[in-house]
Amino acid sequence: MKAIALINSTSGGVQKIGAEQIRLDIEHALRAQSIDFDIMEGGYQTLNDAVSNARDIDLVICAAGDGTQAALASLLTNRKSALLPLPCGTVNMFCRDLGIPLDLPDALAASLAGEFVKVDIGAIGERVFLSNVVFGAYADLAEAREGLRDAETIADVSFSIVEAADAILHADPVRYRAVIDGQKLSIHTNTIMVSNNAITHAENLVPGRASLSEGQLCIYLTDALHGGDFTTVLAGFIGGGADASDKIERRDCKSITLTATSDELAYTIDGDPIKARGSITATIKPKALTVLWPSKAATTAL
Question: What fold is seen in the domain 132-284?
Answer without folding.
Answer: Tumour Suppressor Smad4 (2.60.200)
